[in-house]
Write a structure and sequence with these properties.
311 residues; five-stranded mixed β-sheet; alpha/beta; 9 helices; binds 3-phenylpyruvic acid; six-stranded mixed β-sheet; elongated; 30% strand
Length: 311
C-alpha cells in the first residue's frame, strides 16, 4: 500500500497516518505531499492507494482545502478517520532568543490556534504562511550561524518536527486551547464500503435544486424524520457565483443502516445531486443513539406492512 499524506515528515497528518497499523508494515510506503490537493491527486491518478488529510479542527473548524477537493472532481471516498491531540511548540535555530523572533512561519490552522499566545508573548511578530507546520520547521537551519536567510525566524510546529529538524524549542504547549484535537480522514478511490460496526459515520455533500426559503430545512428534515443525528454541517461555496452553496454533512450511522439509507433516498429525491463520500468507523467508537421507531426492524416492519396493504 502507498499512503500519500500532507507532509513533509513531522506533520500532524503524519501522526494520524501512523495511527494506522497497516501504514507501518514493511511493505507500506508513506508518500509525503506538499499539499492536501497533491495528496488527493495522487490517489485519483493511482500513484497512491490511499491518502490521509486533515478535515476538521476543534479550534478552526473545517479544512476548506479538503472539503472542497472531496466535494468536486473524480470521486473519492472516506474509509476511516483518526483523531490527533494537537500540541504546538515554538522552535528556532539554536542560539535564537525569544525577543529576536520577528516573523513566525506555520500552517494557517496552527496560526489560528496560537493567536492568543502570540498576542501575549510576541505581539510584534508577523505571520508567514507555510504549506504545513513541518514545512515551516524544515525551512529553518538548526544552527543560526550557518543559517541561509529565511523569511521567518521561528516555526510553530509539533514537538516531533522540532526534533526531526534539529531545532531548539523556545516555548512548549503554546496552543490557546489545551484540549485541541484535529480529525483526519483516510481516503481511497471508490470501492467496497467498510462494514457497519454500530459506531459509524457517513459523509455526504448535498447540492440543492434551487435556492428557496426553507431549502436547508428541507434537507435537514430528511435526517430528522428518520432519527439521524448530524455530527458536522458546513456550507461551502460551489464556485458557481456569490450565494451558491452546497452542504457538507457528517451523520451518525452507516449507509447500511435503514434510517441512514432512507434519509439518503429522501435527499436523492429533493436534491439536484447527492455526493456519497463514504461510511466508516468512528474514531471515538461512540455508538449511535437510535430512537424507538427508527431501528432497522422498524423500517423493515413498516415496509412489510405497506406491501401487505398494497396487496
Ligand atoms: O501542518 C501540519 O502539521 C498538518 O498536518 C496540518 C495541521 C496544521 C495544524 C493543526 C492540525 C493539522
Amino acid at each position: 500500500m502507498r499512503y500519500a499524506y500532507l507532509g513533509p515528515e513531522g506533520t500532524f497528518t503524519e501522526q494520524a497516518l501512523l495511527q494506522l497499523p497497516s501504514a507501518s508494515t514493511p511493505d507500506a510506503r508513506r508518500v509525503p505531499c506538499a499539499t492536501v490537493d497533491a495528496a488527493l491527486a495522487a490517489v485519483r491518478s493511482g500513484s497512491a492507494d490511499a491518502a490521509v488529510v486533515p478535515i476538521e479542527n476543534s479550534a478552526e473548524g473545517g479544512v476548506s482545502a479538503t472539503l472542497d477537493a472531496l466535494a468536486t472532481g473524480d470521486p473519492l471516498v472516506v474509509v476511516g478517520e483518526m483523531l490527533v491531540p494537537i500540541t504546538f511548540v515554538l522552535a528556532a535555530p539554536r542560539g535564537t532568543a525569544l525577543g529576536e523572533v520577528r516573523a513566525v512561519g506555520t500552517h494557517s490552522h496552527a496560526w489560528a490556534q496560537v493567536r492568543g499566545w502570540m498576542a501575549k508573548h510576541l505581539p510584534q511578530a508577523s505571520y508567514v504562511p507555510t504549506l504545513s507546520t513541518a514545512a515551516a520547521a524544515a525551512g529553518l537551519a538548526p544552527d543560526r550561524a550557518a543559517a541561509e536567510p529565511s523569511p521567518y525566524d521561528a516555526a510553530v510546529c509539533a514537538p516531533l518536527a522540532a526534533t526531526v529538524h534539529g531545532l531548539e524549542v523556545l516555548a512548549s504547549d503554546i496552543g490557546d486551547d489545551a484540549g485541541a484535537v484535529t480529525r483526519f480522514v483516510l481516503v481511497t478511490r471508490p470501492g467496497a464500503t467498510p462494514p457497519a460496526t454500530g459506531a459509524d459515520k457517513t459523509t455526504v455533500v448535498l447540492y440543492q435544486r434551487a435556492d428557496h426559503p426553507g431549502g436547508l430545512l428541507e434537507l435537514l428534515e430528511q435526517f430528522a424524520a428518520r432519527g439521524v443525528n448530524l455530527t458536522r454541517l458546513e456550507s461551502r461555496p460551489t464556485g458557481e457565483g456569490m450565494g451558491r452553496y452546497c452542504f457538507s454533512v457528517d451523520v451518525a450511522g452507516h449507509v447500511a443502516d435503514e434510517r441512514v439509507g432512507e434519509a439518503l433516498m429522501g435527499l436523492r429525491r429533493v436534491c439536484a445531486d447527492v455526493r456519497f463520500l463514504g461510511s466508516y468507523p468512528r474514531a471515538d467508537r461512540l455508538p449511535a443513539t437510535v430512537a424507538a421507531g427508527t431501528r432497522d426492524d422498524d423500517f423493515v416492519a413498516a415496509r412489510e406492512w405497506l406491501r401487505s396493504v398494497r396487496g
